[in-house]
Amino acid sequence: MNISPEIRHFLNTPIRIGGRSAPGRLLIAPMAGYTHVAFRELMAHFGGYGLLFTEMCSAKAVPHENPKHSLVFRWRREELPNLVCQLFGADASIMAEAARRVAAEGFFGVDINFGCSVAAVCKRGAGAALLKTPDRAGAMVAAVRKAVSVPVTVKYRTGWADDPGGAAEMARRFEDAGADALTFHPRVAPDRRTRPPRWEYIGRVKEAVGIPVFGNGEVFDAEDVMRMLQTTGCDGVSIGRIALSSPWLPAVWTRGPGAGPPVGNDLYRFCAKRMMDLMRAHFEPVTALRRYKKWALFFAAGFRFGHRFSADIRGAKDIDAICAVIDKFFAGDPERNPRPNMHLFR
């Protein structure tokens, strides 16, 4: 299914976020370990998105981080006008200091992570853990807002209980504290994709505030994009795993039939090889190999027998071995899935 002309026009309509304008309403969500500089450069080859986000960056590290050596606080100068840096931390003053560094470097804006529910992050009082203490979460947004003039956005979950009213109240709290936009993932914090996201909650959040609200959660094809926009009234869509699997999709969705790249195995093979080249260009060999293997799990989900492809990549000892796996796999003209294999797409 193709996206309707009306929805395509909407996705291509610029949106005001704070004092700046994003060129479109389809965002690439921040994903720890995945939305690094190499992946973002692959996305930039195709375009079609409004904003890109970095991986989670530690607020403690950012003020002193060297982009030449950091694995996460690293960027290409040309991507900064459409790049948002996501920060996580437990202390409002430290978050504010990190936000000042982000603003000084020229990023589009600062995103505050209240969505990560990984134990290692929550045990430090950061990420989704802050949703347990709404006053502290609001104070953190206010501190970051006071520290910078660039747009301040918040990505958050429903909370630690299945309470849409509480999620709407949290949205109002963030708006009152100075947030310029929200990305809302309608799952409770402890839920690691065991249940479908409650998209109807996005509508409740949208109704509660006057700032832009972007919906997030299991948007995998054109029908999902249209349904989320039509049923929730949100101002845009934030996609995650599907961008890892099919980096060209934003271009296809926003430019219309025939305007994006022709989708076939040649395109998949190009992405597999290009991602390896970018990994090698931006990271040391060991890091490049490790990160490529992480990404390949999602990329392989687009194929009927992607589990074998993924296993062969995981078993490769070096980059040359991975290139051989890619060549062998595509020589067999593999069959593609209409939707990602959810056993791999976890």
Explain this structure.
With 346 residues, this protein is an alpha/beta fold. It folds into two domains: 5-255, Aldolase class I (TIM Barrel); 265-331. Helices cover 44% and strands 15% of the residues. The chain is built from 14 helices and ten strands. An eight-stranded parallel beta barrel has the order 3-4-5-6-7-8-9-10, surrounded by five helices. α2 runs antiparallel to α11 (265-282) and α11 packs antiparallel against α14 (319-331). The longest helix is centred in the last third of the chain and has 18 residues, at 265-282. It starts with a helix and ends in a 15-residue tail after the last helix.
* Class inferred from helices and paired strands: alpha/beta
Q: Total number of β-strand segments? A: 10
On the 0-100 scale, what is the average pLDDT?
Answer: 95
Which class of the largest domain in CATH terms? Alpha Beta
The CATH homologous superfamily of the largest domain is called: Aldolase class I
Radius of gyration: 19 Å
